Amino acid sequence: MKGIAPAVILKLLSGKAMYGYEIIRKINELTNGEFQWKEGALYPCLHKMENGGLLKSEWRIVSGKPRKYYALTKTGKEQVAEKVNESRTFCTALNLLLGSE
Question: Could you give all domains of the chain from N- to C-terminal order, each with its CATH number?
Protein backbone atom coordinates (compact mmCIF):
# COMPACT_ATOMS: atom_id res chain seq x y z
CA MET A 1 0.00 0.00 0.00
CA LYS A 2 2.89 2.35 0.68
CA GLY A 3 3.59 2.85 -3.03
CA ILE A 4 0.03 3.74 -3.96
CA ALA A 5 -0.83 5.68 -0.80
CA PRO A 6 -0.15 9.13 -2.31
CA ALA A 7 -2.43 8.39 -5.28
CA VAL A 8 -5.21 7.15 -3.00
CA ILE A 9 -4.93 10.18 -0.73
CA LEU A 10 -4.81 12.64 -3.63
CA LYS A 11 -7.83 11.02 -5.25
CA LEU A 12 -9.88 11.09 -2.04
CA LEU A 13 -8.97 14.68 -1.27
CA SER A 14 -9.80 15.79 -4.80
CA GLY A 15 -13.45 15.64 -3.73
CA LYS A 16 -13.21 17.55 -0.45
CA ALA A 17 -10.98 18.30 2.52
CA MET A 18 -10.91 15.49 5.08
CA TYR A 19 -9.36 14.76 8.46
CA GLY A 20 -7.17 11.71 9.03
CA TYR A 21 -9.66 9.32 10.57
CA GLU A 22 -12.21 10.30 7.93
CA ILE A 23 -9.70 9.28 5.23
CA ILE A 24 -9.17 5.91 6.93
CA ARG A 25 -12.93 5.30 7.19
CA LYS A 26 -13.47 6.24 3.55
CA ILE A 27 -10.73 3.86 2.36
CA ASN A 28 -12.21 1.03 4.42
CA GLU A 29 -15.69 1.83 3.10
CA LEU A 30 -14.69 2.08 -0.57
CA THR A 31 -12.70 -1.18 -0.45
CA ASN A 32 -15.30 -3.11 1.58
CA GLY A 33 -12.72 -3.49 4.33
CA GLU A 34 -10.04 -5.04 2.10
CA PHE A 35 -7.66 -2.15 2.79
CA GLN A 36 -7.59 -1.28 6.46
CA TRP A 37 -5.16 1.55 6.89
CA LYS A 38 -3.94 2.40 10.35
CA GLU A 39 -3.19 5.87 11.66
CA GLY A 40 0.47 4.93 12.03
CA ALA A 41 0.70 4.40 8.28
CA LEU A 42 -1.49 7.30 7.17
CA TYR A 43 -0.14 10.23 9.14
CA PRO A 44 3.52 9.92 8.06
CA CYS A 45 2.31 9.87 4.46
CA LEU A 46 0.09 12.93 5.01
CA HIS A 47 2.98 14.81 6.64
CA LYS A 48 5.37 13.88 3.82
CA MET A 49 2.85 15.02 1.22
CA GLU A 50 2.24 18.25 3.13
CA ASN A 51 5.97 18.94 3.40
CA GLY A 52 6.26 18.17 -0.33
CA GLY A 53 3.71 20.83 -1.18
CA LEU A 54 0.91 18.49 -2.32
CA LEU A 55 -1.32 19.06 0.71
CA LYS A 56 -2.18 21.87 3.08
CA SER A 57 -3.82 21.53 6.46
CA GLU A 58 -5.93 23.58 8.82
CA TRP A 59 -7.39 22.99 12.24
CA ARG A 60 -11.16 23.12 12.57
CA ILE A 61 -13.38 22.69 15.60
CA VAL A 62 -16.07 20.08 14.87
CA SER A 63 -18.55 19.13 17.60
CA GLY A 64 -16.25 20.79 20.11
CA LYS A 65 -13.21 18.75 19.03
CA PRO A 66 -10.20 20.06 17.12
CA ARG A 67 -9.54 18.18 13.87
CA LYS A 68 -6.77 18.69 11.37
CA TYR A 69 -8.24 18.79 7.87
CA TYR A 70 -6.13 18.11 4.80
CA ALA A 71 -6.81 19.56 1.37
CA LEU A 72 -5.02 19.63 -1.96
CA THR A 73 -2.76 22.50 -2.89
CA LYS A 74 -2.62 23.73 -6.48
CA THR A 75 0.33 21.38 -7.03
CA GLY A 76 -1.60 18.52 -5.44
CA LYS A 77 -4.55 19.12 -7.75
CA GLU A 78 -2.19 19.02 -10.73
CA GLN A 79 -0.74 15.69 -9.54
CA VAL A 80 -3.99 13.74 -9.05
CA ALA A 81 -4.33 12.35 -12.60
CA GLU A 82 -0.61 11.59 -12.89
CA LYS A 83 -0.42 9.68 -9.59
CA VAL A 84 -3.65 7.78 -10.29
CA ASN A 85 -2.36 6.76 -13.74
CA GLU A 86 0.98 5.65 -12.26
CA SER A 87 -0.89 3.47 -9.75
CA ARG A 88 -3.11 1.98 -12.46
CA THR A 89 -0.04 1.14 -14.54
CA PHE A 90 1.54 -0.49 -11.49
CA CYS A 91 -1.61 -2.55 -10.79
CA THR A 92 -1.83 -3.67 -14.43
CA ALA A 93 1.81 -4.77 -14.40
CA LEU A 94 1.32 -6.57 -11.09
CA ASN A 95 -1.72 -8.42 -12.47
CA LEU A 96 0.36 -9.51 -15.47
CA LEU A 97 3.07 -10.84 -13.16
CA LEU A 98 0.69 -12.62 -10.82
CA GLY A 99 -1.35 -14.03 -13.67
CA SER A 100 1.65 -15.58 -15.39
CA GLU A 101 2.87 -19.06 -14.59
Answer: 5-93 (1.10.10.10)
Q: Is the dihedral of CA 29, 33, 35, 36 positive or negative?
A: positive
pTM: 0.84
Q: Percentage of the chain with pLDDT > 70?
A: 96
Facing residues of 62 across strands? 65
Given this model, what pLDDT does residue 62 score? 92
DSSP letters of 26-81? HHHHHTTTSS---HHHHHHHHHHHHHTTSEEEEEEEETTEEEEEEEE-HHHHHHHH
What Å distances lie between residue 32 and 28, 67, 86, CA to CA?
6, 25, 23
What is the spatial distance between Cα 80 and Cα 14, in angstroms, rounded to a whole number? 7
